[in-house]
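Continuing the series of single-chain predictions for the mutant panel. This is the parent chain; the variants come on the following pages.
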Amino acid sequence: MLPWRSGMRRKRNPLRLAASIFAAVVGCFLIAAGLELFLRPNNVAPGGIAGVSVLASHVTEMKISLWLFCLNLPFVLYRWKYVARGPLAIALPLVGVVAFAYVLHPVSALVEEPLPGALGGGVCLGLGIGMILRQGGRFDEAETAVKRLPSLRNADMVVFVSNLSILAAAGLIFGAEQAIYSVLAHALAYLMVEVGFSGMSPYRRILVRSRNLPSMQRATKSAFYVQWIPTDEEYSAMCVVHRSDAARVRRLLRELDNEVQMIGNLEHARETIV
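Parent structure:
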C-alpha cells in the first residue's frame, strides 16, 4: 500500500489506507524523535543527511529541522524528475519529519548519556526510515540520488567515503569518543531499516532476474520450499524465502546462473520509481 500515490485508479480499502498513513506518520515521528531526543542532545551524528544536519545544527546553533529541510530539498527535487506517479510520496515524509523535529526541539532529551543516546537514536532513526519505505515514501534520498548519477562508476564507494567523512567530522567536532558512538548509531540505524521495512517476518523477498528462471524455481522449490511470485517484468520473479535459507538460496541461484541479478526487497524499494 502506497498511501501517497495519487495516480492509482483501483479502489483502496479505507482501513488499509488509514493504517498505511498512520504507519508513515509514526515513521516520521520516530526519525524526528531519534534526532531531537537522542542523537543531537548527546552530540552523536550518524551518517547520511541526518548526520550532516546534526553537525550543522551544532556548529551554527540553528534548529535541526531547518537543516533537514534545506539539505534534503535538493535530493527531493532531483528525485522528482524520475517520478511517474505520486510525487507526494517523496515530499510529504520530509515535511512530516521536519514538522515533528520542529515541535520536539524544545523537549528535553530522553537520555543524557551518549551510549544510550546512540542506541536509542539509531533504533528510532532506522525504524522510522524503514517504516516510511514500507509505505512507499522516501526520506534521506542522498544515497539513491548518488547511485542514479550516470557518470558515476562506483557509487557504493562514494556513499561509503561520504559516510566515513561525516563520522570523521563528528570526531573532529565532538571528540574521538563521540565518534565511536556516532559509528554505533549509524550501524544500528542501518540494521534497523530492514526491521522497520519488513517487520518481524521470518521471510525475505528477493527480486530475481535471469533467463534460467524455470530451472531455478524447480531447484529451490524442491530443496528449500521457496515460493515464487511472478512479476510484470520479463525473465524476473520475486523469490520468497525464509531468512535462515536466504544465503544458501542465493548461492544456489548463482550456481545455476552466474549472471543472475538478485535484488533484496529493501534495495528494490529504495530504488523503485514511484
